[in-house]
Amino acid sequence: MRKVHLISVSEPLILDLALAIREKGYEVTVSGTGLSESLLVILHDAKCTCYGEGWFPEKLTKDINFVVLGASVKKDNPELVRARELGLLIQSVPEFIFQRTKAKTRVVVAGSHGKRSILTMIAYALSKQNLVFDYALSGECPVLSNLFKMSYEARIALIEGDALVTSSLEKRFQLEFYRPHIAVVSNIVQETSPGIYRSFIHSIEREGKLVYFSGDEKLKELASEVREDITAIPYEGETIIDREGTHFLATRYGEFPVYIPGNYFLLNLNAARLVCRQLGVKDKDFYQAMSEYSLTLRT
Predict the structure, then answer these.
(1) Which of 207, 204, 211, 195 is closest to 274 using CA atoms?
(2) 130 FRET partner, CA 20 to 30 A, in 33, 170, 207, 282?
(3) Dihedrals φ, ψ of 124, to 5°?
(4) Number of Cβ within a 10 Å radius of residue 283
(5) Is the pTM of this model over 0.85?
(6) How far is CA 193 from CA 42, 66, 197, 204, in A?
(7) What is the edge-to-edge ordering of all strands in the sheet holding 240-243?
(8) φ and ψ of 230, to 5 deg
(9) Whole-number Å distance between alpha carbons of 165 and 107
(10) HEC readout, the chain
(11) So what's the pLDDT on residue 15?
(12) Rounded to whole angstroms, how far apart are CA atoms 227 and 201?
């Protein structure tokens, strides 16, 4: 049985990675600090081995196939030091995700805000069409049961892209690893270097798509610089009709009742629609799905 060790399981995505890897039949060991009783119970029930609170470098052996390194792990972490001494294959979380999705159509959603909302809408619409997909998220999504799923049958992978440094061993940003076929950038805040997103956009696979918010001047400039083989697709907000306090999406397929929970909802909806169109979801089916989804958000 292939062996995998994950360092810093208290990081949310690391836990979900461990559970998914174990489900595929690997022998999984984990370590970390700040381990809660509930987390230990989850690991025990999944038959993932955890030796307790802290680091246990003496437990690492040469027969471990690879080590997954959490983003918060420091260079002098005793387990990381031991893994390097043994010459083990060490992967950051973005490296691991990319390696497990190389044969899939990767949709990476990035930007300073709205990522999770866009991903949620895409996931909901794909599920309504019974399209199978894998995913990797950095936070909870209301329509998905956990943060990570990997399977053999899915041909689509949804990835939440963060403009953060990957790990203590790799100073590239997480966005630079995923090489999307379809990239979404919702916006760039003032404090964020456009260079991060320039590198991300440059990493799009050949003949790929860039879906971007046309109301962001920095993004418009970056979109104008894309390679000739990349199709840049701008988006704005969807058109709505207000009829006696009820909102409707005004589309070529008719009107769809919609609940609007926030200022960016219609922008995010249009970004998700353009992605779903690339994945084979018809606009009419998407609008119907979003009408249903939005109405579930009404409190």
Answers:
(1) 211
(2) 207
(3) -65, -45
(4) 14
(5) yes
(6) 39, 33, 8, 18
(7) 240-243, 246-251, 254-258
(8) -95, 135
(9) 20
(10) CCEEEEECCCCHHHHHHHHHHHHCCCEEEEEECCCCHHHHHHHHHCCCEECCCECCHHHCCCCCCEEEECCCCCCCCHHHHHHHHHCCCEEEHHHHHHHHCCCCEEEEEECCCCHHHHHHHHHHHHHHCCCCCEEECCCCCCCCCCCEECCCCCCEEEEECCCCECCCCCCCEHHHCCCCCEEEECCCCCCCCHHHHHHHHHCCCCCCEEEEECCCHHHHHHHCCCCCCCEEEEECCCCEEEECCEEEEEECCEEEEECCCCCCHHHHHHHHHHHHHHCCCCHHHHHHHHHHHHHHCCC
(11) 93
(12) 9
Spatial CB neighbours of 277, under 8 Å, sequence gap ≥ 6: 283, 286
- Which pair of tokens denotes residue 152? 């053999």
Structure tokens at 146: 């956990």
Q: Residue 234 — pLDDT band, cuts 50, 70, 90?
A: very high
pLDDT tens, position by position, 108-134: 999 988 899 999 999 999 999 999 999
Supply the pLDDT for residue 71. 85
Written as one letter, the residue type at 118 is: I
Taking 90 as the threshold, does the pLDDT of residue 172 lie above it?
A: no
| Segment 136-163, tens digit of pLDDT | 998 888 899 899 999 989 999 999 998 7
| Per-residue model confidence (pLDDT) at position 165 | 65
Residue 268 structure tokens:
């995010």
Q: How many residues does the chain have?
A: 299
